[in-house]
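Tokens as discussed.
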């Protein structure tokens, strides 16, 4: 890499000196939660363009000086590396200054945003302009709808699947050309953010978890505020209840009784949203069963806890709630709490545990990283499996035993999308405790390797583990990765965009291997 004085001067010309950081000043964009001997990539510089033209100028400099870049929208991908690049010395292209809400269309239910718009900003914009719309937000709302959706993140409420609800992208390619996908490929077409297809192959997926282009605007689906929302919190009596809970909820998700995803968490992960570990247990190793039981009882938690929302006219939300209640009778000892809100309720009157289901973004759950005390840090493990009892039980056994064997508490659960489930384990640690930090690293490698041996794989990961995980997606001698690398070589022959992202590296032979 050639980040010399000339390259820095050229970058400065693109964005102005106040929007370029380098050397030690670029450490703002290193992973704040780096752990163990995980490869700590330090950005060589951070450049913050405010417009497509400034971004194109940055790309021209990168091409001329062969600078590897790393794109972030707001860089809040915390737990998965934050704004940190995959390769040491890369220039982080931080799009936080491109932060305009370009349109809100109530009639058709969408907004058009730039990458620097945060969930918090979009929500504030909707409130300020009196738009009666409901958006889907993740538990922590300081990231951006575009960055989160491109990483295949999810939220709650009916539009929870964020990548599915992006519609119509504007993308700047490595050579500086601006592309609009779907109907946006036709000048002035009013359906750009309404119909993904367009005419010909659909390219949107090429820009998700990808290093093929930089997304500079996107349509994001919103829904009209429903007349009512009923939030449901299910609490179960036994640590064995996760499989029966999945068996009960899956048909309700698949037949549309529950219109969103359902998130299921064990007592420890919910307790970490409300308290710190030393209050419950200060001994070494994973918290023992009796301490978990005492903690769950003291906080009024179930051993497993599910939450989801029901949306629509009160006659429908009440009918849906009655069906859910009846189904849950099959699970001995399970309790359900529900709260009914009108869709336009004043957010100040919403119970904090219901914010996500009502699309109200916040930052309170950052405290989960402080579970073990010390300097809070966390990383997350996210594994995909079929939403069946057998698979969920197997994943739980695999993750819990591995986490506890390394002396950590298993704080996690499943996000149930209907057909699939994503097992989540939140690994909180004290960043300044070298032993703890080293054990997180070992644990992460073990989790990946054991999962892959069992036939599962994460869908998302910290940059340091991207190659390891990409290796697992190996059907037919990594044919899919070869296709991606062939596209990479064609679109970005100098390899300037996020080299190594998801294990896709520029300059490898791609499909030019001999497979005859
Ligand atoms: P968040 O919105 O949660 O802050 P980030 O900005 O950290 O998310 O982005 C997460 C990841 O998504 C980045 O590491 C990058 O790989 C990808 N990404 C984010 N924004 C863009 C974008 N505008 N264009 C292309 N890829 C992006």
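Sequence:
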């Amino acid at each position: 890499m050639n980040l010399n004085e000339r390259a820095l001067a050229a970058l400065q010309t693109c964005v102005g000196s106040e929007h370029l950081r380098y050397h030690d000043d670029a450490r703002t964009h290193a992973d704040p939660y780096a752990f163990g001997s995980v490869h700590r990539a330090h950005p060589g510089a951070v450049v913050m363009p405010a417009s497509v033209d400034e971004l194109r100028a940055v790309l021209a400099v990168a091409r001329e000086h062969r600078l590897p870049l790393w794109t972030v929208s707001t860089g809040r991908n915390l737990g998965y590396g934050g704004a940190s690049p995959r390769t040491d010395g890369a220039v982080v292209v931080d799009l936080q200054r491109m932060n305009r809400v370009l349109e809100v269309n109530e009639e058709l239910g969408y907004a058009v945003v730039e990458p620097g718009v945060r969930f918090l900003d979009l929500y504030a914009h909707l409130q300020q302009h009196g738009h009666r719309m409901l958006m889907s937000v993740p538990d922590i709302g300081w990231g951006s709808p575009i960055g989160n959706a491109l990483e295949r993140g999810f939220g709650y409420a009916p539009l929870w699947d964020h990548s599915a609800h992006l519609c119509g992208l504007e993308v700047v390619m490595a050579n500086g050309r601006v592309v609009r996908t779907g109907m946006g490929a036709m000048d002035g077409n009013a359906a750009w953010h309404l119909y993904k297809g367009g005419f010909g192959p659909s390219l949107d997926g090429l820009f998700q978890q990808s290093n093929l282009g930089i997304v500079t605007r996107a349509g994001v689906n919103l829904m009209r505020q429903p007349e009512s929302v009923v939030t449901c919190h299910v609490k179960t009596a036994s640590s064995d209840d996760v499989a029966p809970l999945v068996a009960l909820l899956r048909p309700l998700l698949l037949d549309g009784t529950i219109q969103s995803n359902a998130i299921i968490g064990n007592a420890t992960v919910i307790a970490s949203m409300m308290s710190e570990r030393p209050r419950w247990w200060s001994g070494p190793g994973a918290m023992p069963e009796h301490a978990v039981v005492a903690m769950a009882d003291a906080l009024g938690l179930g051993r497993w806890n599910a939450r989801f929302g029901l949306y629509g006219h009160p006659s429908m939300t009440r009918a849906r709630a009655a069906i859910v209640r009846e189904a849950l009778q099959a699970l001995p000892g399970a309790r359900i709490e529900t709260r009914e809100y009108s869709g336009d309720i004043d957010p100040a009157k919403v119970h904090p545990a219901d914010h996500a289901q009502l699309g109200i973004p916040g930052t309170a759950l950052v405290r989960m990283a402080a579970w073990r005390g010390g300097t809070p840090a966390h990383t997350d493990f996210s594994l995909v499996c079929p939403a069946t009892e057998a698979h969920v039980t197997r994943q739980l056994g695999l993750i819990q035993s591995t986490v506890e064997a390394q002396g950590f508490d298993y704080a996690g659960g499943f996000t149930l999308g209907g057909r699939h489930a994503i097992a989540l384990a939140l690994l909180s640690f004290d960043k300044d405790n070298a032993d703890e930090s080293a054990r997180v690293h070992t644990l992460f490698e073990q989790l990946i390797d054991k999962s892959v041996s069992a036939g599962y794989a994460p869908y998302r990961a910290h940059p340091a583990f991207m190659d390891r995980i990409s290796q697992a997606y190996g059907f037919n001698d990594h044919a899919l990765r070869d296709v991606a690398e062939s596209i990479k070589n064609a679109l970005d022959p100098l390899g300037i965009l996020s080299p190594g992202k998801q294990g896709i590296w520029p300059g490898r032979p791609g499909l030019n291997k001999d497979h005859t």
